[in-house]
């Protein structure tokens, strides 16, 4: 299953539209006013299905994930020198990025690739393609991409 993740060009807070392969809107992400990034995820019917909330005052960036209103886990960046690396404590995923931070591989505990994320260049806004092996993992993969994009935005 492929998702196209596009940031909106004109908005006060972070806003994204997520499309399926046929161009149908699957999710809409809206940023909220808060300390740190707070991104609410809505399905195509307008129901809130998840939240990515940045923890503030941490040594390395951390983002809490909520499925609906239930805490699902934490995405945390590891200290590395050349390639970015993230852990997700709710499902044992590990994320490895390339040197330019454009492409990422999401691996499970057995080092099997569960998703790949690629940044599309030459766009006005941040645009990623998320290729998820199991459609049930799409929302968690989306939350991961939101956290990575927010972390990169905070750093720059």
List keywords for this structure.
single chain; about 10% helix; 12-stranded antiparallel β-barrel; mainly beta; about 160 residues
Dominant shape:
globular
Q: Report the major sheet.
A: 12 strands, antiparallel, barrel
- Total E-strand runs: 12
Percent strand equals over 45%
Task: State the separation between the terminal residues, measured CA to CA.
Answer: 31 Å
Radius of gyration: 14 Å
Helix-strand pattern, N to C?
Answer: EEEEEEEEEEEEH
Q: Indicate the mean pLDDT.
A: 89
Structural description of this entry:
This protein is mainly beta and 156 residues long. The longest helix has 18 residues, at 138-155. The protein is globular. It is built from one helix and twelve strands.
Give a short overview.
By secondary structure, the protein is mainly β. The chain is built from 1 helix and 12 strands, in the order E-E-E-E-E-E-E-E-E-E-E-E-H.
